[in-house]
Amino acid sequence: MTRWKLLAVYGFLFTVYGFTMVLMDGVLIIDKPVGLTSHDVVARVRRILGERRVGHTGTLDPFATGVLVILLGRATRLAQFLSGAEKEYEAVIRLGYATDTGDLTGMRIHETQTSAATPIRFHKAPSDEEIESALAGMRGEIDQIPPMYSAKKHQGRKLYELARRGQEIERDAVRVTIHEFEISRRDGRLLTGNEDGTLDLAVRIVCSAGTYIRTLAEDLGRRLKVGAHLVALRRTRAGDFRITDAASLEELKRMVAEQDFADRILSMNAVLSHLPFLHLTAADAERTRNGMPVNVETDAQATWVDGERVRMCGRHGDLIAIGFFEAATRRLQPRVVLAPEKEPLT
User: Fold this and answer.
1) What span, in angstroms and rounded, lies between the C-alpha atoms of 290 and 320?
2) Which residues are catalytic?
């Protein structure tokens, strides 16, 4: 393997004035801890690796944990190809009262209770059959109204900024898909009781990108005719990236110090392996580096549709660009060029 390929796939370490720097282009899976925003995690990874270009896909709320896909170097340009992936979560929904944010960080909404300290007393706790029926009605394609306490924007302002000022605006419903919404039984029971009289329901959810789990919790409460909010959320998968592949920030810091983290960095080619690819001639590789379209003269395009996203690879299999197929002209037009303008020497 050439030195250039090693740099592109794994990166390398070097020391300047006693400070270890890390250069790489790829994807790192971090197990986000509770209490940090996704932006906080990006900032910490930037400091640990000494890499200026760091981004992420798929924001997690501060109280949530789990899979956060971190993009490094040139891979920061790949967010548009990764952010729409299916997600999987483990969550705990608390039945008994709602909050203004839909989760445990918000203020309790007083319905029949007069005080936040007043114990919850169910006239009749939801039965197993009622819970199962409510969940069944929430699977498949559903319309979901984004919560006010979210990062979704309205006229350039984030909704949570407006919510903190006491404003509430009308939001359009968004179509999302709930592939799985299942109960995770604890000791054979659906519900776990708390000292304040509330009941906890542990669930597992597989859904399309853009789904708000807090809203699912609130909607489930409405179906059961009881206030509800989210008290725990852990993302266990984002697309093909799983929690078993993730490293904590502490583990990353240790691995960098020991120079033993190369296998944690996934190459850009690997994370886009779900896209078809085309090997380019030397001449076409040069055109691609300069953002110029190339003709597709093989049978590869037989199954490609107009607008198909295709990996455009060089002679060593290195990823040069992501191109979009133009069916009318049978050409690939580079949209995101990832490789240097000049091909490296071998």
Assistant:
1) 10
2) 61
